[in-house]
Amino acid sequence: MTTPGHPARLFLAAAALSLGVVGTALYTQHALGMLPCPWCVLQRVVFLAIALACVIGLLWRGTVGRTLAAGASLLLAISGMAAALWQHFVAAASASCNLTLADRIVGGMRLDSLWPDAFSARASCADAAVNLFGVPYEFWSLLLFAGLAVVSVRLLLPAQSNR
């Protein structure tokens, strides 16, 4: 019998959340005109990578698969938190974020040319500094990455025995 903390459910929830976040980012970009900067686009890539790690965790049953997938998801979530913090405290204060680490990573993966509507930076970091419901957009991202990190840690913990 599966419980709410069952690894498959946690991996599925984390993957769905990650994909939903990217869908929401695309909606706010195309429907609300909130254009992404390179750091925004990099965070989209990280959310998709977390979703992929979680799908691998769903498919690769067993302790080794779960551990590798959860470990990768945790490292990616920490990377996403760092990107969100960097975007807010450093990049948003800069007039240009061209050729930053985020720009080089996304450009190196060629995602901006393969799927420009989703992965092409269309604003500077300063111009992309917007609020959603009064909270900086990147803080929403930070919060979601933190939640995914908690799920990843939970997946890395040994199963609790029934008492």
Write the layout of secondary structure elements.
Layout: H1 7-30, H2 38-59, H3 63-89, H4 101-109, H5 111-114, H6 116-119, E1 131-132, E2 135-136, H7 137-156
Antiparallel strand pairs: 1-2
Which term fits the overall shape? elongated
Please identify the structural class as seen in this structure.
Answer: mainly alpha
Considering DSSP H and I runs of 4 or more, what fraction of the residues is helical?
Answer: 55-70%
Strand content: under 5%
Q: Based on the structure given, which CATH architecture is correct? A: Up-down Bundle
What are the segments in which pLDDT stays under 50 over at least 5 consecutive residues? none
Q: Give me the count of strands.
A: 2
Strand adjacency order, main sheet: 1-2
What's the N-to-C terminus distance?
A: 16 Å
The chain-level mean pLDDT equals: 86
Number of domains: 1
User: What is the tally of helical segments?
Assistant: 7
Q: Give the SSE string.
A: HHHHHHEEH
Outline the biggest β-sheet: 2 strands, antiparallel
| Rg over CA atoms | 17 Å
Task: Please identify the top-level CATH class.
Answer: Mainly Alpha
In CATH terms, the superfamily is DsbB-like
Characterise the protein shown here.
There is one protein chain. With 163 residues, the chain is mainly alpha-helical. It has one domain: DsbB-like (Bromodomain-like). It is built from seven helices and two strands, in the order ααααααββα. A hairpin with a 2-residue loop joins strand 1 and strand 2. Helix 1 runs antiparallel to helix 2, helix 2 crosses helix 4 and helix 3 (63-89) runs antiparallel to helix 7. The protein is elongated and about 50 Å long. It starts with 6 loop residues before the first helix and ends in a 7-residue tail after the last helix.
